[in-house]
Structure formats: C-alpha cells, structure tokens
Design brief:
Elements: H1 3-10, H2 18-21, H3 32-38, H4 40-50, H5 57-71, E1 79-83, H6 89-94, E2 100-105, H7 108-121, E3 126-130, H8 136-139, E4 145-150, H9 162-170, E5 173-184, H10 189-199, E6 205-207, E7 212-217, E8 220-225, H11 229-238, E9 241-248, E10 252-259
Parallel strand pairs: 1-2, 1-4, 2-3, 4-5
Antiparallel strand pairs: 5-10, 6-7, 7-8, 9-10
Helix pairs in contact: 3-4, 4-10, 9-11
C-alpha cells in the first residue's frame, strides 16, 4: 500500500475533526504546550515565543545552523518523521528536500496549528497528527522512516528517560536509518534564560545541580535539560545505539545516532 494512503487510512491527515486527530491518545492530558495556548497568559507567552525578534541572536543562529546540517542528512527519496513538530516550522523547510515528512506532537493545539499551516501553504508531502513518542513502532509499524528528527532540545524534556526515548524512536527507523538530535549545551544557559524571561515564563528557575530549566504552574510542569558530550555519549550507549556524529556548535550539539550493526 502506498505510504501516503496508509497514513491517511490510519489517521486522516490535516482533518478538521479533532477526534480523528487524537484517536488512541489521552485527550484529557494537558501538556505545557497546550497550557500556554489555552490560557490568556499562556497565549501571550506563546505569541512572544514565536516572534523571532524575541530570540537572542545565539538561539536564532543555532536554529539556522540546524537547517544547513539537517539537509546534509537528507535525500530526495527519504521518508522523514519529526517527533515533537510543534507548529511546523521544521516541517516547512524539510518538505522540499524529501519524498514525505510526517510530523507528530502530543500537544493538541500544536497539531492544529501545524495542520493549518500545511493546508495554507499547500505542502502536499507533509502529514501532521497526534503521536506518542514512546510507541512509534505501533503507529507506523508497516512503514519505518529513513530519518527521525528530535529537535528543539525535546530529548531534554524527559529527564531520566532519555535512553528509553531513543530506543523507542529507533524502533521506527529503517535498518540503516538515523535519529537526528538538536541539544542545548552549557553555553545556551544565559541566552535561554534571557529568552524565557523575555517571553514571560512563570516560576522559571535554573537548577545548577540538575543542569535543567524548570517552570511550574497550574496544569503544567516544564523541564528542559542542558547537555554535554559525556552525557550525550552515556545516553546513546544506554539506549544500545551507535553515535554516528556529534557536532558541537555555538550553544549546543547536533547529533546523529543509528542502530548498532552486529
């Protein structure tokens, strides 16, 4: 069966039926992402976060460097998944480079925004849907991906579960596929503090011992880790994967991992 038809059959792409988007997932769970788009204060923070003018130059440069690095790992015939696609910014620039790109997120309103963007910009090879990072092999069991992208330091939102998450993502890869990661390092701490403060994150703090940003409020608990090279290597090893590339850039790392070959 054609891959696009298969995806459409499992969960209608770009559908306006929210029940269809969320089929098989706990719709009662409110993510931090949903919180910030559903509340009045959250809506204000979300709007400011999406404005490039509020991003420190270091963070803006980090994202521009990511685009150039990612393209080097893509081929026209590839099927790519972005886990944690947010509002679809990465999907937009990956789309011209590959055969198919699928975006999944566990935040309902982020999926809504991404699907609206896909329709508005007529991105015919882009699919967006609700998804569970830890059960990709169930959602896409018949069609593994050439590349899975986990960007915006999303791995750092799962402290203590990083290796488990990588193992789960690897189950959605083809045998010669790769997981691409964008991770923040020590030099990101001050720019990120400036950014989070500018957009107005409530109850923001940085824990030096844990090396993590945290914010907590009514209905959400946000955490985002800071990585270094030993920690990255440890996580990859614990996941039973192979480190294919680790590139240190201005405030973080671009990392490619693959399944071990025996």
């Amino acid at each position: 069966m054609h891959f696009m038809k298969y995806i459409s059959g499992r969960l209608p792409p770009n559908s306006n039926t929210k029940q269809a988007r969320r089929r098989g997932f706990d719709t009662q769970t409110k993510s931090a992402s949903d919180y910030f788009t559903q509340t009045s204060i959250g809506s204000h923070i979300h709007t400011r976060a999406m404005d490039p003018a509020n991003r420190p130059p270091e963070i803006e440069k980090f994202h521009q460097q990511l685009k150039a690095w990612t393209v080097l790992h893509l081929k026209r015939e590839y099927c790519v998944l972005e886990a944690g696609c947010g509002t679809g910014a990465v999907l937009r620039w990956i789309s011209p480079e590959v055969k198919l790109v699928v975006g999944i997120d566990n935040a309902h309103l982020k999926v809504d925004e991404s699907q609206d963007m896909v329709l508005r910009e007529h991105l015919m090879n882009v699919q967006v849907m609700m998804g569970d990072f830890f059960h990709l092999h169930r959602q896409f069991e018949r069609h593994p991906f050439d590349v899975i992208c986990l960007y915006s330091n999303t791995l750092g939102n799962f402290p203590g579960m990083e290796a488990k998450l990588l193992r789960a993502l690897a189950k959605g890869l083809k045998k010669d596929g790769q997981i691409l990661l964008q991770l923040y390092g020590d030099k990101s701490i001050q720019p990120r503090w400036n950014f989070y403060s500018t957009i107005g994150w409530p109850n923001l703090r940085y824990n030096k011992d844990e090396k993590a940003f945290r914010a907590k409020g009514d209905g959400f608990d946000f955490v985002s880790l800071v990585f270094d090279e030993p920690k990255i290597c440890q996580i990859v090893n614990e996941a039973g994967l192979e480190l294919a590339e680790m590139k240190k850039v201005n405030i973080g790392y671009f990392v490619a991992v693959k399944q071990q070959v025996y």
